[in-house]
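User: Before I run my own analysis I want an independent prediction to cross-check against. Here's the chain; please return only the structure tokens and, at the end, one sentence I can use as a sanity check.
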Amino acid sequence: MRLTALALLLVLPALRADEGMWTFDNLPTKKIQAKYGWAPDQAWLDHVRLSAVRFPGGSGSFVSKDGLVLTNHHVGHHWTQVVSDAQHDYVKNGFVAMGRDQELKVPGLALYTLLEMEDVTAQVEKAVPAGADEQAAAKAKAEALAALVKEQGAKTGLDCQPVTLYQGGQTWIYRYKKHTDVRLVMSPEYGVAAFGKDWDNFSWPRHDLDFSLFRVYENGKPYAPAHHLAWTGKGVAYGDLTFTVGHPGRTSRLETLAQMEAKRDVTNPLALRGLDRMRTSLRAYAAQGGEQARVVSDQLMGVENAYKVVAGETDGLRDKVAMAKVAEAEKELRTKVDADPRLKASAGQSWAKVEEAVAQQKAGAPEASLLGAMRSETLGSALGLHRYAVEMAKPADQRAPQYRDEKSLAGLKARLMRIDPAAAGQEAFALQGFLATVQQELGAAHPATQALLAGKSPEAAAKALLAGSKLGDPALRKALVEGDPKAILEYTDPALVLARQLAPKLDEVQKKQQALQSVISEHLTRIAKARFAVYGTSTYPDATFTLRLSYGAVETYPLSGTLAQPFTTFAGLYDRAAAWGPKAEEGSWELPARWVERRDKLNLFTPYNFITSNDIIGGNSGSPVVDKRGELVGLAFDGNIESNAGRYYFDSRVNRCLSVDARAIVEALDKVFDAKHLVTELTGKN
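Assistant: Structure tokens:
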């Protein structure tokens, strides 16, 4: 008799997965100690925290005393593309600096290290006047927090950023060291870093060498971080305790059931339709030629990934068993709140208030999502210029904050003058796709549709606007921004004329959504405070793209009637490539030439990727996976398909974090890329 996957699990050691993306001030060390017989002390926590760095949209870590930084290839994809050109496609062909003089400075890339954290909840709460309504309370808190951030930035010289946790239940200021001189050191070929392309995305088993190396410089010399992670000496094994240290982007596990149901029924389906149109547009542009495909490879990868994420989230929200647990947890909290007169007075009506505001948000969702984010360089620039002109025409003390502060204003003006050649090249496809979306989602009778299309088809309207507008001229854009703002309000460029027509409607939509969000935020804060009163800090806050630590172990899970293997190897990589052949699905499983040539040099049974039960989500990409010695054993790069519902709940039975094994990285650097100097820097071994 064959054992089912469930029966197999019952005879294996109990799954040791643990839920939570914990802040460094509130790690459940007693729980970890009780379960694993060991827990981090403060020195360990400080070491891994100060070794971590934040990338735009992802995570990374210092891995040498000379400022070498490890992250995912897909986190570095855009920045590798920035230093590439038509003659040097480092995304497709890879890049290795054989000496530090060959390391490529990446313009615009900044990394952050979290040095200090301060809880300012009490100071912010004191700023709320007695009897203030939801909007007044939200405004008072925002102003008090902004003042504290500015004061601390001036005092410390660090990059101070506000952090809201527990849906407004706690407010912190995180103080970062900002690194602005960052250089590309090494990046493998896209074909091996994203082996299997979108087909294998979120799947397991997996064979992706998804890593890249950068270096931070300071004053023209390699930066010497106070802390960096030592490279593992022996690697990780099945059952070992592991930690991920990174910046999970966003979870919604503390949202109300009404909010989740709104996303299931309205917001997510709307987003999926929009993402589908975006990828259609990008594919059409990429089909024009190799250079066009190179230019949009990062965007297309991001859109394809986002589509799978949102689709997975939506499936999770439709899971009746899982959502019943969410509903039961909310019911339990509401019952406890109603049983306490003090909590009931503060938060007893909050769920109803949130539900009412969410219902109104649902009704305005198509307008808010479409008009709030123009998928067009031309229209986006025109609206930006129009808003700039309107604000600058006001007395300085009446302008929005970003138009008052000199530093913010200088950055805003620079962005308004900047023209992205890649975006300009795609504009015909992007604009037509956006106009078609507006027509389909809002309907022909909607004022915005009538203004944008003027009775034409999306294709004809896009052609007419692009033929008539001159905003793509850098000299004109510069003259408008540096000249009298009133001239922008009178300029007859058709894109600016259209912006003037659309702006009142956009402002109306924005103000309505902001008012509703103020109500939701205020009552989520009340619910969060009630949750604190009931459960304390035994719970963890939703992810906010701030530094978190999760813990778990190298663990299997039920998969297709059997158990998932905890590791893959180089042998599995070559087997998958051979099984598909080079022509299958546009070469998704075709290995780059040097990987074919160097096959015999590799130890094919070196661990390549592995899975753990660590709780992660988007933004954790590039997170170091460390063991209890604080050594780097792997690099988180993805979750399995079952983990996509992790934005709303964590299922410890099947949610898994996928990582590149540290042993695979040094094996490839040494035997495929001839980068022994990097192996020596990482491991200290020649």
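Sanity check: Residues 494-535 form the longest helix (42 residues).
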